[in-house]
Amino acid sequence: MILSLPMILHDLAHSAAVLLFGHDELIQSCTANYATAAICRKENLDRYDDRLMAKTNLIEAYDLLIDFIAKHTLVRFFLINGLSVRITPASNRIEDISP
Question: What's the domain range around 17?
């Protein structure tokens, strides 16, 4: 069966909308193997020390990943123009991604 381009684009747009905004049950029914994974390796590089498996939509998974990164990274304080500023790698990542 040959699919037309508008049908393929419609399916891709539907899949993208489900992954971005869908509820967990809807995402798992459409894509059974979908998960966003994060692994932290500190002690033994052959095994992981902590792991996050987010099986939720991409917007909620982003928040979970940022919290996971903040949990496993150092928080540093700097003086900028006489003000104490807290900078974390997670906040730096947010600034890099945000427009």
Answer: 5-72
Residue 95 to residue 80: CA distance in whole angstroms: 17
Q: Are 26 and 65 in contact (CB under 8 A)?
A: no
Estimate the crossing angle of helix 58-71 against helix 5-21, to 10 degrees: 50
Higher pLDDT, 70 or 75: 70
Amino acid occupying residue 86: R
Please, which residues bridge with residue 38 across strands?
52
Adjacent-strand bridge partners of 50: 40
90 vs 70, residue with greater confidence = 70
Q: Distance between CA 14 and CA 12 in Å, rounded?
A: 5
Number of domains in the chain: 1
